[in-house]
Design a protein that fits this description.
It is a single chain. The chain has 330 residues and is of the alpha+beta class. It is 29% helix and 20% strand. Among the domains are: 5-54, Uridine Diphospho-n-acetylenolpyruvylglucosamine Reductase, domain 2, CATH 3.30.43; 227-328, 2-Layer Sandwich (Enolase-like, domain 1). It has helices spanning 12-21, 35-40, 76-80, 83-88, 90-97, 102-107, 110-114, 121-125, 167-173, 275-281, 288-298, 310-328; strands at 5-7, 26-29, 48-51, 61-62, 67-71, 177-182, 185-190, 213-220, 228-233, 244-253, 256-265, 272-273. The strands form three sheets. The protein has a five-stranded antiparallel beta sheet with strand order 4-5-8-6-7. Strands 9-10-11-12 form a four-stranded antiparallel beta sheet, with helices on both faces. Strands 1-3-2 form a three-stranded parallel beta sheet, covered by helices on one side. Helix 10 (275-281) packs antiparallel against helix 11 (288-298) and helix 11 packs across helix 12 (310-328). Bound molecules: flavin-adenine dinucleotide and iron/sulfur cluster (SF4). Residues 118, 120, 122-123, 131-133, 140-142, 159-161, 202 line the site of iron/sulfur cluster. The site of flavin-adenine dinucleotide has 28 residues, from strand 2, helix 2, helix 6, helix 7 and strand 8.
């Protein structure tokens, strides 16, 4: 049995101080739906847990202004049901309510959702399988093994694990910002810079520095959000991660596209923005043909493996359908 110490600070300043004192074996606890899962699998073995559920300032949701503001501790179920979100940014709301189950969404926080780790089976099960993310330097069993769920974009010779979350895919489409607090104060970064591609160090999923926590997420209240959707294809219709997903948003003026947003899930090592495909739609009418062409462009540079090549054709269709659903709301 491994002893674990537990702290429940009552303020952000005290949480940061507690984290600064603690060593690398410390983990932040929010809803616990990923952390405890990984502890049971022996992937995570924290020596110290810092429970942030006492930090009420991190639970606030404010969607009334020019920015939508979500505290990192806001629960997935509360945010997905927010009235302004469902009308002004359906893609963000859908990305949340199509994730996990109602019970999990009631527990799980936005911050924890963004920081969940890959569902790669070799990572979760460990020995006897090689996994550079779990045991740096051991190799990657997925590259020559079962890789149906693995990434087409952003992989390396060291790791091709898919980033599994849904909400992050929608956030990356809408130029969200993340506010972070740590021993050196607060800083803000574009959401697209939070996750890192594996390169030669797959063990580190994000650009967070030691002792830092996510405080809030901010999304510019851009009108493009209104005609948007999060389209998610999974092996069963609920309680399953994305095989392929797309967050899409469209702005139409006089019948042509003036703004397009497109991000892909289930196919990349990080939430993946498909900027070339977005640009290909500008000044065109949104038809099944132009939408499908954007989908083909989004997957043109895919690097496929033995079992995941089917995602290229599926992905082009998911993008087409997402764009058509979004434009139907314009
Ligand atoms: C069966 C199952 C199905 C699921 N299906 C889906 C799905 O379809 N789509 C999907 O998107 N997700 C899915 N999930 C994942 C689920 O959404 C996450 O487990 C959940 O969102 C994590 O949030 P949490 O608050 O419980 O995080 P925790 O478990 O508390 O934390 C997760 C990680 O984030 C860190 N952390 C938490 N908050 C902060 C913070 N503010 N700052 C810094 N670090 C922090 C923790 O230290 C930990 O490493 C599923 C999970 C399960 C168990
Ligand atoms: S894909 Fe990444 S997480 Fe999966 S076995 Fe390879 S190194 Fe590990």
């Amino acid at each position: 049995m491994q002893p674990i110490s537990y702290a429940r600070p009552a303020s952000l300043a005290s949480a940061i101080a507690t984290l600064a004192e603690a060593g690398p074996g410390t983990r932040v606890l929010a809803g616990g739906t990923t952390l405890y899962d990984l502890m049971k699998l022996d992937v995570e073995r924290p020596e110290r847990i810092v429970d942030i559920n006492g930090l009420e300032e991190l639970a606030a949701i404010d969607t009334s202004g020019d920015e939508l503001i979500f505290g990192a501790l806001a629960r997935m179920s509360d945010v997905s049901a927010d009235a302004r979100l469902t009308s002004a940014f359906p893609a963000l709301s859908e990305a949340l309510w199509k994730a996990a189950s109602q019970q999990l969404r009631n527990m799980a926080s936005l911050g924890g959702n963004l920081l969940q780790r890959t569902r790669c089976a070799y990572f979760r099960h460990g020995e006897p399988f090689a996994c550079n993310k779990r045991t740096p330097g051991s190799g990657c069993a997925a590259i020559e093994g079962l890789n149906r769920g693995h990434a087409l974009f952003g992989g390396s010779d060291a790791c091709i694990a898919t980033y599994p979350g849904d909400f992050a895919v929608a956030l990356v489409a809408f130029d969200a910002q993340i506010d972070i607090a740590g021993p050196d104060g607060e800083r803000s970064i574009p959401f697209a810079e939070l996750h890192r591609q594996p390169g030669d160090d797959p063990s580190n999923d994000t650009t967070l520095l030691p002792g830092e926590i996510i405080v809030r997420i901010r999304v510019p209240a851009d009108p493009v959000g209104r005609a948007s959707t999060y389209h998610k294809i999974r092996d069963r219709e609920s309680f399953a991660f994305a095989v392929v997903s797309a967050a899409a948003a469209i702005r139409l003026e006089a019948g042509v596209v003036t703004d397009a947003r497109l991000a892909l899930g289930g196919v990349a090592t990080v939430p993946w923005r498909a900027r070339e495909a977005e640009q290909s739609l500008i000044s065109k009418a949104l038809t099944p043909e132009t939408a499908r062409a954007a989908g083909e462009l989004a997957f043109a540079d895919a690097v496929t493996r033995q079992h995941n090549a089917f995602k290229v054709e599926l992905g082009a269709n998911v993008v087409r359908d997402a764009l058509l659903i979004a434009s139907g709301r314009a």
